[in-house]
Amino acid sequence: MIKQLSLFIGLTLTAASFAQDIDNNDISFTYTQLPLTPLSKTIKNYQGVIVQKFEDIVKQKQELYLAELAAAETEFQKAKEAQTLLQKMADDKYAKDMEAWNKKPMAEQILYSAQKPQRSIIPTPTKRDVAKPEIPKTYDAQLLAGKYIKLQGFNNVNDNAVTITISLYGFNSENPILKERIAQKATAATSTVPAKPEVKKYYYAINYKHMMSYKIDVPGQGTVTEQFPAELDNFSEYKTNEFDSVKYLVTNWEQNKSKILEQIQDKSVFENLEYINTKINDKYGFMKMNYATLLSVVDEKKGYQDYKEAYVAAENGYKAIGSSANKSDAFPELSKAIGLWENAMKESQPNNKKARVDGDVTEITILNLIEAYIWKDDYINAKAYIDKVKTLDPSRKGKRRLERMELLYKLNKERFDANQ
Fold first, then answer.
1. Do 317 and 403 have their domain in common?
2. In terms of domains, do 96 and 216 share one?
3. Domain that holds residue 168
4. What is the distance between the alpha carbons of residues 259 and 221, in angstroms, rounded to a whole number?
5. pLDDT at 108 over 60
6. What is the pTM of this model?
7. Same-domain status, 280 and 298
8. CA-CA distance, 17 to 365, in Å (whole number)?
9. Is 307 exposed, middle or buried (0-12, 13-18, 19+ CB in 10 A)?
10. Complete DSSP assignment for 306-369
11. Is residue 196 part of a domain?
12. Per-residue pLDDT reduced to its tens digit, 120-166
């Protein structure tokens, strides 16, 4: 649904003309999109909760790591004590042997110099290395929830609030894969240009994901949905910076591995939270959306004052949709435009090129009417005009515009019906 809607939202339409006396002008406004799955009208508030399901694993890994560090320290201290004792025993023996050696005659010492006692050195112990485990980064759950969980159209207040819980299951990444890119193709020398060697760039590709789920709890109803978006369980690819040689790439990776993985995890977490928040708002929120379309007018100096008045009224109506808290505030202006266009349609003669409302004018009038009726939530009349314009064999540009109108009709009607 979101992908379909993107065909409309932010669409930039280039002004064109069905005929020389017709202007199709770009017009844009904001509107409040109704939810696909509306909550009870008694619910006005929401609260967001972030649960990091991997916190227990992080805690366990940290505790094991600290225990191993403590064990290594204990082993080291015992080894140092043993080394001290053994060194003393060796030194005592050396002193005793030297005392006996010094009592020997000088001639004997010279003759048997190779047998002179030597001091034994007991090696100093070293502490056992304990590898630091790879622990997923944890976040301030309250800050995350405040920044990334926003149910549009509702107040972030706990009283009688719908609870949105997003669970994080931990960051996963695979070992980096060495890849290369030809930055410059080899070329042969010419009479004016020297030969160029092939130049390659090297980088790592890292597959990663951070699975999340969301749950909606409504007062008096309990859990109304719990979703595990399958798309978040797919790996995405991160590309490191490129280097001129594999050696430089490997060195950079070894020096910056932890920092790079943390950046990837942050990217994954923030993007996934935004994605889930958009999905939640699409179903339950009242999202502010940007919309762009065309509004047609017959731009003749004489004989089309009604079309100019209709254009102004429709433009004012669409602006009111974006500026007013209540969509119905736009209806009087839209109704005025509709009345002028429908009155003009009484003169419609699609097959008479000399008629004031000829085929081209009839076409743009109906297209204007379709859109105005859709935004008035009058889907019966909108559908009637959709069917009518199809019988007129619309122009290529008219067909493209009609396709957009039909999609708008489908999406808006679906949401309108869901909220009745």
1. yes
2. no
3. 45-54+136-175+206-238+251-284
4. 44
5. yes
6. 0.75
7. no
8. 13
9. buried
10. HHHHHHHHHHHHHHHHHH-SSGGGGHHHHHHHHHHHHHHHTTB-TT-TTSTB-HHHHHHHHHHH
11. no
12. 999 999 999 988 877 778 899 999 999 999 999 999 999 999 999 99
